[in-house]
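Progress narrative, Year 2. Work on V-type proton ATPase proteolipid subunit from Cyprinus carpio advanced from sequence curation to structure prediction during this period.
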Amino acid sequence: MQSQAALRNYAIFLRIMKLCVCLCAALGAAYGTAKSGTGIAAMSVMRPELIMKSIIPVVMAGIIAIYGLVVAVLIANSISDKITLYKSFLHLGAGLSVGLSGLAAGFAIGIVGDAGVRGTAQQPRLFVGMILILIFAEVLGLYGLIVALILSTK
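Result:
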């Protein structure tokens, strides 16, 4: 049987890993911003008047990173010397849920934003459809945030 000090060190390690996993949400946001940004740059050559209207995917990708930041701050503020292994695994699960769902949402927003912005430049009626698909992609990250908040408050 392991000593209490070894278990406490293991629990601290799991919490730190959880904070690192929250960075996956930032990676998804970065990819979504970069992919949408290339679409905006290509579209602005043909239709420069649509640049401000086409910023929406970039803003939505940035919100994904905020989800990861919120969960990371909540967990970082609850780190103490009296960490149980159970609580550490819950926090690791919270980090995984917000991080991986943020990564997936960022990829979806980037791909949809790039294609949608380029398509909207050619056919303006595609704008509403692009926004709806972006909303559904953003909700994937929101689901991860909700699960992470539930896990981190148990």
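The chain has a mean pLDDT of 88. Residues 85-122 form the longest helix (38 residues).
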